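USER: Study each token:
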Amino acid sequence: MPTVSVKSYNVLFLCTHNSARSLLAEAILNNPAVSRGRFKAYSAGSYPSGKPNPHALAQIRSAGLPAETLRSKSWDEFATPGAPQMDFVFTVCDNAANEICPVWPGQPLTAHWGLPDPAAVEGGDELKRRAFAETFRHLSNRISLFTNLSLEKLDRLSLQNKLREIGRTDSGTTTA
């Protein structure tokens, strides 16, 4: 019986500083149990901080995911010749959604999946840890909804609408 090849999709998560939410999303989607060989996630920022937020790295590690290769980088890396061509681009912070993004080769589908910045939470380490855990949970829910879409069966407009709807979900339910 011939092996059926599964299309692999490149996904870019954008946030202004690429130090927290976008890195969390990259780590979640690159988990083999989540991506199931169908997705390769990347992250970037319009004004990268240059280093991942330590609380983001701690959250990723506490979920049992690798964090060693994660780095804060500019979205310019993904708009150059030779860069991976993106199939999907998701903004996960409100600032990046309002900025003028580079033109992505191949016209990827885009959606805004904004969440409050856990790095902006003030207070003790426990409060910050909870903020990162909550953001991780929201992103995990949205990514799960995304990876369970029948991408090959949806036309472009229907898929675009589903992606936007996922951005309006909270804990896996639509808040429309």
